[in-house]
Amino acid sequence: MGTIHDRPVRKVFTTRAGGVSRYPYDSFNLGDHVDDAPEAVRANRARLARVLGLPETNIVWMEQLHTNTVTVVSEPQAQPVEATDALVTTTKGLALAVLTADCVPVLLSDTEAGVVAAVHAGRIGARNGIVEKTVQAMLGLGAKPYQIHALLGPAASGARYEVPEAMAEDVEKHLPGARVTTKQGTSGLDIRKGIIRQLLALGVMAIDADPRCTIEDEAMFSYRRDGKTGRQAGLVWLQ
User: How far apart are CA 82 and CA 71, in angstroms?
Assistant: First the structure.
């Protein structure tokens, strides 16, 4: 029997549970940009690293701004990588982190080529091609579409993500398959659905999606549900 450490890659999603942050960030908030007490965020991030068996310095964070900028990193970063919404690396033991509270966290890996990526794919970034640009960056480092595995994390579901009709139309134009009708019968977006279709078109066939809706599932942080709230994380790294 192999152990967990025999796996060439690890992909992890956190939830709200298990931290020290107080209301409305209770309790495992990992976002340092949401006005939570800095010492609470530091304690939560230290605990995350401890549980994952990684040095804290080996977790790379992003200054997520809903851009379609992809950054390749090869070593630990003292600060979050500025103005980027996707990270790519070939460095073993370097964990790439994406923070979300409704946007889609996308974790990508090609273990044959030894390339992984973490993507913050919100409505704007997904519309503007952040996932496709990340896959292209991986291919530039030797990855092959048919070898890439994609894991999409908890996010706002199409059933609950209401948007104006014009916005739904605009996103659909750039991210086909994303436009849906919500439970209320109004215009909505299922960004995960659009991303899955986009990945398939790029030749990425090995796709798993966590079906949890952040708006409905109170175990997850949700900006649309709560407004002032924390952030959960998705992490990927080569072992």
Answer: 9
